[in-house]
Amino acid sequence: MARANSTRRESHLDSPKGLRTTFVPSFSSGDRFGRFSEAFARAMGTTWFLFALTVIVIVWLVYNSLAPERWQFDPRGQNFTLLTLILSLQASYAAPLILLAQNRQDDRDRVQIEQDRQRAERNLADTEYLAREVVALRLAMKDVATKDFIRAELRALLEEFDGVPKGGEKPPKRASEG
């Protein structure tokens, strides 16, 4: 038994931190409750929720209207007090949970907007830097020999070499050259 525990501990320590399983429960109830409120608000905003709520209310009304009076749990004569109470309770809990979910979404949006603003600032700084570098390169290019200048110089050298014999001496002038 002790060997099995030591083997488990060793493999536990050898695994990357993200892959380790933890046995310590998380007590961040605020986040858990916030996620619950978002799930609740998301579920209440669906067609299925509205359909299910409508079916429950219709069944409730039909049963308590048509069933024998001794079987009714919310008699029609009392104006469906229990149904009214349940729907009021559902509405009183739904509103704050939906507001909590909206506040959490606003917080996420605020963080996203700040990250977008920072990214835009970095992009602007990078663009300005690159623009300055391009201007500096253009200014430096004025002092650099262009292709046309180098070609002209090479042509001039070739013409000069064409006139010189292989020994390095200038050829004698011809009689026609005068």
From TrEMBL:
Could you tell me the keywords of this UniProt record? Answer: Coiled coil, Membrane, Transmembrane, Transmembrane helix
**Membrane-spanning parts:** 39-62, 82-101
Q: Which residues form a coiled coil?
A: 103-130
Q: Does the keyword Transmembrane helix apply?
A: yes
Q: What is this protein called?
A: DUF1003 domain-containing protein
Annotated source species = Lysinimonas soli
